[in-house]
Specification:
Layout lengths: L8 E3 L3 E5 L19 H5 L93 E5 H4 L2 H11 L6 H11 L4 H9 L4 H12 L8 H12 L4 H14 L5 H13 L3 H14 L5 H13 L3 H13 L6 H13 L3 H10 L9 H13 L3 H15 L5 H13 L3 H13 L6 H13 L3 H13 L6 H13 L3 H13 L6 H13 L3 H9 L10 H13 L3 H13 L6 H13 L3 H13 L6 H13 L3 H13 L6 H13 L3 H13 L6 H13 L3 H14 L5 H11 L3 H6 L10 H16 L3 H13 L6 H13 L3 H13 L12
Antiparallel strand pairs: 1-2, 2-3
Helix pairs in contact: 3-4, 3-5, 5-7, 7-8, 7-9, 8-9, 9-10, 9-11, 11-12, 11-13, 12-13, 13-14, 13-15, 14-15, 15-16, 15-17, 17-18, 17-19, 18-19, 19-20, 19-21, 20-21, 21-22, 21-23, 22-23, 23-24, 23-25, 24-25, 25-26, 25-27, 27-28, 27-29, 28-29, 29-30, 29-31, 30-31, 31-32, 31-33, 32-34, 33-34, ...
């Protein structure tokens, strides 16, 4: 994800620097695996030895998906936030912030202007702009994160589930003692971005306290790495109200958040917002725009935007072109990417190693090794960029990531032969790739080779082996490997044990996994949220639902909160097991413990009540949703309608749909099918047509009446279906013809050949050609019934249209 607008964080051994500059993209450093995560180039980070080696494959540990592991131990930037934070009565972050934001046109800052037309914003700065760089730089040292005040504030924040006036008073007193860098340290110390945002809002409302500019930009930076686009937009609006200068980078952060949420049009509208705010775009914002367009596979628009940049005097840099190269690679237009690299020197911007690494990553994914080698030669010949340790690290990681361990190992050997120091990180990546393929022996052999090379394996390498044994079902060997880690002076960590617990749960030994987790203190490791999630889903899969619920309670008690997805899977299992009341109690407990409950969770339990016919309980839970500020959606109302319709309670069912429409919710295709099915089941055609008119006024659905006719035919209401035929014969589509064929077949099955003939005649009059074979059957039946004239007329229609030749005996 693009990081072009970030207040850049350069991490050093003894301090963290947060840079505030108008063109942070100029501070680009090469990362070892920059092509694996292209956004790293836009982050402005130069980290050749500080890489997050979850390796993606091993790194599945933070996905919080049952049975999957992620060795980073977190949900990642784009994960749904699972905790609510309420300072006193303040709760600014609503439950929709971590979902798609939608087109919420506030009207106060011009955000409802056309998405793609926002590219024309650059024209308003024609000839008035030149590249600028703001050299202001704010520094946050590592010592700020260890400051006693910062640590105490963070401790109080962790007590949010038991928040009271006393704790709030303590926090208010500490806040006034914090310096701006320390406030930033508090915000960055929060694992949950929504918690950080709530603290930001709470602090802003305190008397005798005012956020410094660095705090605003730090909050924007944090939110730009999430999908909380509503929250980041509010922070930007708050800056305007507080009179804080909004640099182009501030708007770039908002673009980035929208981009993470997959909302391309909203991201581009930020340019219009900048124009209305009187803020001129700079290179970093333009680079972000190009990246957003490229990520959205809008390369033609990205190229047009590049032209406009140059017209107003913003000269592209290597990052600009690298964004385009990445975009071409993402849509498999590798030829265009290579051509762009070849053209860059003539544009006064020679390619850097990241330009080549981006294309190499594509070739590694496709296992086009010869082309990788050729590209390395071109680096030297055309750009005088010689392959170095970073180059080989990039190739090794990308090949390992995509399961090409043998080729990765070959490059590792080549790097060693050329004298480049290969550390345990590269070895570990290949080890994990072997383990994913079930090639444990080769992985162990490589570990032994690491010792020979003087490269001592670390906990990540050993954990990869443990995970590999678990994948292969060799749990005893996985346990022995954990013991060997101690012998080699490498202490297993939480990730190592979680890998083993995941293997036990996958093998149906969830009880043993829970016992091992309960004994974690004896082995000096601490379960995290992923550990609890793994064991909870193991118990759920084995049908031990009561134990799974107890584990969630224990999990919440430890300060870890399950995600709405995890909660929903447990609710589904409870409902499928017939324990609907227990499911309702569980969702109430989750609400009381500030877990992130969403509309899907409520709908799951409502569906459970509907399946068992407890409709009053389902309606009661619908009311509880409103009381909990969780608004039902189309699926909720459709589920309830179907349940009431199944019981024949059509008046109450109709009220639910009317209520849904009054709430501004649009009926979905599933809603239409459900409504049509239930009304036709009970033969309530008139009532159905009245309700359909209301629904169609809200959300058009072209095949609605086609479905009505088909369903009426299914339930035997042929005459009612025939009366509606005129509503589908207004067009000459194939779908309309198929609907008529259904009615003709039903008439034919009932022995009503003359009625089928009339349907065919109406089709001909609307320039629709009926099915010939079906009409031949109708004609034969007409002859048997003594309707020779109609039978001949039907066939004559086909002759007139050249669909068949006259038969002997046919009257012409």
């Amino acid at each position: 994800m693009v990081m072009g607008m970030n207040l850049l964080g350069k991490v050093f051994t003894n301090r963290r620097l947060i840079h505030l500059c108008a063109n942070p993209l100029s501070y680009i450093g090469l990362r070892v695996f920059s092509t694996t995560n292209f956004g790293s180039q836009l982050e402005g980070k130069c980290e050749t030895n500080n890489i997050n080696y979850g390796y993606d494959g091993l790194g599945n540990m933070g996905s919080r998906v049952p049975g999957e592991l992620r060795f980073t131990g977190s949900n990642g930037d784009d994960a749904h936030i699972s905790q609510n934070f309420n300072f006193g009565c303040l709760n600014e972050v609503d439950s929709h912030d971590d979902e798609h934001c939608g087109d919420d046109n506030d009207g106060d800052e011009g955000e409802c202007s056309g998405g793609d037309d926002s590219l024309e914003v650059l024209n308003s700065f024609q000839g008035s702009h030149e590249n600028r760089e703001d050299t202001r730089r704010f520094e946050i040292y590592e010592s700020e994160f260890r400051h006693p005040l910062v640590r105490e504030v963070c401790r109080l924040i962790t007590l949010r589930s038991g928040w009271n006036r006393k704790l709030e008073g303590e926090l208010r007193h500490l806040l006034r003692s914090l310096k701006p860098p320390q406030v930033c340290a508090v915000l960055r110390s929060q694992d949950d971005e929504r918690v950080a945002l709530n603290f930001f809002y709470w602090a802003d409302r305190q008397w005798r306290y005012r956020h410094d500019i660095i705090v605003y930009y730090t909050m924007l930076d944090i939110l730009s790495k999430t999908k909380l686009c509503q929250g980041i937009k509010r922070v930007l609006r708050l800056m305007q109200r507080r009179g804080i200068e909004r640099l182009p980078e501030a708007f770039g952060y908002v673009m980035e958040s929208y981009s993470r949420a997959g909302m391309l049009r909203n991201a581009l509208r930020v340019l219009t917002l900048m124009q209305k705010a009187g803020v001129e775009p700079n290179l970093s914002v333009c680079n972000t725009t190009i990246y957003v367009l490229a990520k959205g596979k809008k390369l033609k628009k990205a190229l047009r935007f590049l032209e406009r940049m140059q017209l107003i005097g913003i000269k592209p840099n290597v990052v600009t072109y690298n964004c385009l190269i990445k975009g071409f690679c993402d849509i498999n237009q590798i030829k265009d990417a290579l051509e762009l690299i070849a053209e860059m020197p003539s544009k006064g911007c020679p390619p850097d190693k990241v330009s080549y690494y981006t294309v190499m990553a594509f070739f590694c994914k496709e296992k086009r090794i010869e082309e990788v080698k050729k590209l390395m030669e071109n680096m030297v010949r055309n750009s005088n960029l010689r392959p170095d340790q970073v180059t080989y690290n990039t190739l090794i990681h990308n090949l390992s990531k995509h399961g090409h361990a043998d080729d990765a190992l070959a490059f590792l050997r080549e790097a060693e032969e050329k004298g480049f120091p290969i550390d345990k990180v590269e070895y570990s990546a290949i080890v994990h790739s072997f383990c994913k393929k079930g090639r444990i022996d080769e992985a162990k052999s490589l570990v032994n080779n690491m010792y020979i090379q003087g490269c001592i394996p670390d906990v990540v390498t050993y954990t990869a082996i443990v995970d590999g044994f678990c994948r292969a079902g060799k749990l005893d060997e996985a346990k022995r490997m954990l013991q060997q880690m101690y012998k080699h002076g490498c202490k297993p960590n939480t990730v190592s044990y979680t890998a083993l617990l995941n293997g036990l749960c996958r093998s149906g030994k969830s009880v043993e996994a829970r016992e091992m987790m309960n004994a974690s203190e004896e082995h000096w490791w601490t379960p995290n949220a992923v550990t609890y999630s793994v064991v909870m889903h193991g118990l759920r899969r084995e049908g031990k639902l009561s134990e799974a619920c107890d584990l969630v309670r224990q999990m919440v008690g430890k300060g870890f909160f399950p995600t709405p997805v995890e909660i929903n899977m447990l609710l589904q299992s409870l409902c499928q097991d017939g324990k609907i009341v227990d499911a309702k109690k569980f969702i109430e407990e989750c609400l009381n413990n500030d877990c992130a409950i969403n509309v899907v969770n409520f709908t799951t339990v409502i569906h459970g009540f509907c399946q068992t016919g407890e409709l009053e309980a389902a309606l009661s839970l619908l009311d509880d949703m409103y009381l909990s500020n969780k608004h039902p959606d189309e699926v909720t109302y459709t589920t309830l309608f179907d349940a009431f319709g199944r019981e024949g309670r059509m008046e109450e069912a109709s009220e639910l749909i009317t209520r849904m429409l009054s709430k501004g919710l649009d009926p979905t295709p599933v809603t239409y099918r459900t409504v049509i099915h239930r009304y036709c089941q009970w033969g309530r055609v008139e009532d159905l047509l009245k309700l359909l008119e209301k629904m169609l006024a809200r959300q058009p659905f072209r095949t609605a009446y086609n479905q009505v006719i088909v369903k009426l035919c299914d339930f035997g209401y042929l005459e009612e279906a025939n009366k509606l035929l005129g509503k589908v014969l207004r067009t000459a589509s194939k779908f309309d013809a198929d609907t008529c064929h259904v009615l003709m077949r039903r008439y034919l099955d009932k022995g009503m050949a003359l009625s089928a003939y009339k349907v065919a005649s109406r089709m001909f009059s609307r320039n629709l050609i009926p099915d010939l074979k079906l009409c031949e059957k109708v004609s034969k039946r007409l002859m048997m019934d003594g309707n020779k004239v109609e039978a001949d007329n039907l066939m004559l229609r086909f002759v007139e249209r050249g669909c068949m030749t006259p038969q002997n005996g046919m009257q012409l």
